[in-house]
Write a structure and sequence with these properties.
heterodimer; A: mainly alpha; two-stranded antiparallel ribbon; 16 helices; 8 strands; about 70% helix; globular; B: mainly alpha; two-stranded antiparallel sheet; 12 helices; about 5% strand
């Protein structure tokens, strides 16, 4: 296989694996802040136990996120040397800002968050939890700024030519607030918050179904459900505004997402389908003129299609972009339906009555993960053939000095290590879940309503 | 060219990155060093104490690497790109060991089974050793130079080209320096028999370090003229290696007097002064080309635009006090001997 393909596979694999964890850390971070704040306000011990329990799971996701994240930072230089020289001025700035402003905040307070429960005052601990959460939010900001600049470059000029060409910042704030960054930061944040909320929902739904830790789980479930409902609805808005941005800034990408070929014609919106690149046809269920309506509030307005671009400037994998994009949207809708239905049942007072609903929530934890992954794949594959949109092609951006054997070696190494890492993650996550939120069996007994009553009768309290 | 306090921006940026990597070497240096000794401790309880001594801080220490890498990317993208792609294999190994090490800290204590704990003890210790060694190897290659040709392209292609006599020497020197440094850190964190054992181990580490540092210095003076020329021209620069020797020699003296905190400060100074030495040898070059001097990468041809450097210096000026603040806060919270509780690893 050639070096470019290998370098792309390695990058895609390592970034996709990495991206399982940071969204969980961000999302769990918010819930930890909520639980711990609730404890500070109400002094209800259950909130304290919830905060501690989720901090332990957070520690696991955070640890894997850090070590797999360092890989990403090095890989730009090792595998994408031409790209790194080209964007160093821009991308490097954002990355350095991320390190200084976000990671340092996150990791500085992490030690106290994990090990400081008995060492610092409760409010200092809460401040640390908030510090870690904000740090993880900021780190998403800077890396998405850097990526958005690749999608919609702004605030720069190009110096030099050929292999020595490079982008230099002319306006730092224009670079930071490039046309797509705000939309995409919000979209990524919400995706992350949903990943965390649905993991919490899943674990506590599981406890409720299994009739373990029921009291505390109902409490946690309701909070996470509210978070999920708010953010899944908000995600609809950020998703829509992202798509509008793509239509303006990266028309070829949007056309690939909907499999829209005609250079200028009203465009349909598919619920699902299959794109045949050769015949330029999409088979599937569609709303005629739907995409036109979505963008221009009119079913007839023409939308730029793939044929408006020369063959070499179109994304190579149109069907893949289409599928990833549609899977993401379908899941987004499903999450709205699920969380709103949950809210409805809560309002009716029947939230924990239906077993199948609880089981659905148990398995729904995987959904935001899939949506996050497919969303990124759609965004990145839709940007092809460019690594910096309109300026630098992916097939010119990889390291010339690295041989295919070297990449094969590192790729196999990562495959082995990450597989082990993933198995270990699942094993430990399961172990923590099976163990439950309580540290002592005494606390655990207090969470069984019947046992509690019996104890009261027996001891006369 | 724009200047600030009489120094041009690339020079400032050279100092910033030097400072970041020195901070990284001092901080991750002690936790790699502590990990390197891990298998010398036999009892599970000792190993737990040793691992929990770095438990709350290893992650924060690695942030210095992330910031240093980001700063190099931002300040000298040409250096970042050429060097990282040129040193592909050692960097990939470094990353994999970094992952294995971080994970073994996280999961070692999660099961009671002896085989489980032993396995992660071995992974933890071996990867700590390899990380310290690889950092030294990479540094050796920077000092010695690599085959850079036209357009800053690395031209070597051998799988094991990064291993050569000089880089092996710098690798071992770094390993033993970190092991000494790590032993002193553990002295601050342990009590009883483990503490007594570490006193002995620290001395062994120091002797090995001095032997390798001596050989490396001789080798540099004899065989690597582009590094020694500066020194021969300005004999005053010999003060830097002299300070390094004095700083490290001061460590056992202070340890004998039981002034461990000061001993730790001096071993940190040793690391810092060695990196000052490296900086003097390099400046203004970042990476020597063994192909032709015209292909040397220096702080001017590798630099980002002035505007970018200015922005970044502002970011660093705002960020550094914050980073130092958090670092102080976390070390203060966990000062003193390790106490195991239910949240420990």
């Amino acid at each position: 296989m050639d070096t470019e393909i290998l370098a792309r596979i390695q990058f895609a694999f390592t970034i996709a694996f990495h991206y399982i964890y940071p969204p969980l850390s961000i999302g769990l971070g918010l819930l930890m802040v909520i639980f711990e704040s609730a404890y500070m306000r109400t002094k209800n011990k259950q909130y304290h136990i919830l905060a501690k329990f989720w901090t332990k799971i957070f520690a696991l996701t955070f640890g894997i996120g850090v070590v797999t994240g360092i890989v990403m930072e090095f890989e730009f230089g090792t595998n994408w040397a031409v790209y790194s020289r080209y964007v160093g001025d821009v991308f490097g700035s954002a990355l350095a800002a991320e390190g200084i402003f976000a990671f340092a905040l996150e990791s500085g307070f992490l030690g106290v968050l994990l090990f400081g429960w008995n060492r610092v005052k409760p409010w200092v601990h809460l401040v640390s939890t908030i510090g870690v959460f904000l740090g993880s939010m900021f780190s998403a900001v800077w890396i998405v700024v850097a990526n958005s600049w690749q999608q919609t470059p702004a605030g720069y000029h190009i110096v030099g030519e050929g292999i020595n060409a490079r982008a230099e910042i002319t306006d730092f704030w224009a670079m930071v607030f490039n046309p797509s960054s705000v939309d995409r930061i919000l979209h990524v944040w919400l995706g992350a918050l949903l990943a965390g909320a649905f993991l919490v929902l899943s674990v506590h739904a599981y406890y409720i179904v299994k009739n373990r830790f029921v009291n505390i789980s109902k409490r946690a479930f309701k909070i996470a459900l509210a978070v999920a409902a708010i953010f899944s609805l908000a995600q609809l808005a950020t998703g829509h505004s992202s798509a509008e941005g793509v239509a303006v800034n990266q028309p070829a990408k949007l056309a690939a997402m909907e499999g829209h070929f005609p250079a200028s014609a009203s465009a349909d919106m598919y619920l699902f389908g299959w794109v045949d690149k050769e015949s330029q046809e999409v088979t599937g269920l569609k709303i005629p003129g739907g995409l036109s309506f979505l963008l221009h509030y009119d079913f007839e307005t023409p939308v730029t299609g793939l044929n408006a671009f020369p063959e070499e400037d179109r994304p190579g994998q149109i069907n893949a972009v289409f599928q990833f994009y549609h899977i993401m949207i379908a899941i987004g809708m499903l999450l709205i339906v699920l969380s709103l239905y949950g809210m409805f049942l809560w309002w009716k007072g029947k939230l924990f009555k239906k077993k199948w609903v609880l089981w659905t929530f148990v398995f729904a934890a995987i959904l935001p993960q899939i949506a996050n992954q497919t969303g990124w794949f759609a965004a990145e594959m839709g940007r092809q053939p460019w690594v910096v949109y309109g300026h630098l092609r992916t097939n010119q951006a990889f390291s010339q000095a690295v041989t295919d054997n070297q990449i094969l070696f590192s790729l196999i190494l990562f495959l082995i290590v990450y597989t082990l890492l993933f198995l270990l993650f699942i094993y430990l996550l399961n172990k923590k879940i099976q163990h439950g939120p309580y540290e002592t069996s005494e606390d655990e007994h207090s969470d069984r309503p019947h046992t509690k009553e019996i104890t009261q009768i027996v001891t006369g309290n | 060219m724009e200047t600030f306090l009489g120094l041009d921006y690339p020079t400032w940026w050279f100092l910033v990155i030097g400072g970041l990597f020195s901070g990284y070497a001092i901080l991750d240096g002690f936790d790699f060093g502590a990990g390197a000794w891990h298998l010398f401790f036999k009892k599970d309880h000792s190993r737990r104490i040793a691992m929990n001594a770095v438990g709350p801080v290893w992650d924060g220490n690695e942030v210095w690497l992330v910031i240093g890498g980001g700063a190099l990317f931002a300040g000298f993208p040409v250096m970042y790109a050429t060097f990282f792609s040129g040193m592909y294999i050692p960097f990939m190994l470094f990353l994999v060991f970094l992952i294995l090490r971080g994970i073994s800290i996280e999961v070692r204590g999660k099961e009671e089974w002896p085989w489980w704990r032993n396995m992660f003890d071995i992974i933890y210790s071996v990867s700590s050793i390899m990380l310290a060694f690889l950092l030294g190897v990479v540094l050796g290659n920077v000092l010695q130079g690599i085959a850079i040709g036209e357009n800053y392209q690395y031209q070597g292609a051998g799988f094991f080209e990064f291993l050569n006599p000089y880089s092996l020497l710098t690798g071992f020197t770094t390993l033993f320096l970190f092991m000494t440094h790590g032993a002193i850190y553990l002295l601050l964190k342990t009590e009883g028999r483990l503490f007594a054992k570490l006193t002995l181990l620290m001395k062994k580490g120091m002797i090995l370090f001095m032997v390798f540092f001596g050989i490396t210095t001789m080798y540099t003076l004899l065989y690597i003229p582009h590094l020694s020329d500066d020194f021969k021209a300005n004999p005053i620069l010999f003060l830097a290696p002299l300070i390094t020797f004095l700083a490290i020699a001061n460590v056992p003296r202070l340890a004998n007097k039981k002034r461990y905190r000061l001993a730790f400060i001096f071993s940190s100074l040793t690391i810092a002064s060695m990196l000052v030495l490296v900086a003097i040898e390099l400046y203004p070059t970042l990476l020597f080309s063994t192909v032709d001097p015209q292909y040397h990468i220096d702080i001017y041809n590798a630099a980002s635009s002035e505007g970018s450097m200015e922005n970044m210096l502002i970011i660093v000026a705002i960020g550094t006090p914050l980073v130092l603040g958090y670092t102080y806060f976390v070390y203060r919270t966990f000062r003193g001997k390790v106490q195991l509780d239910e949240t420990s690893y």
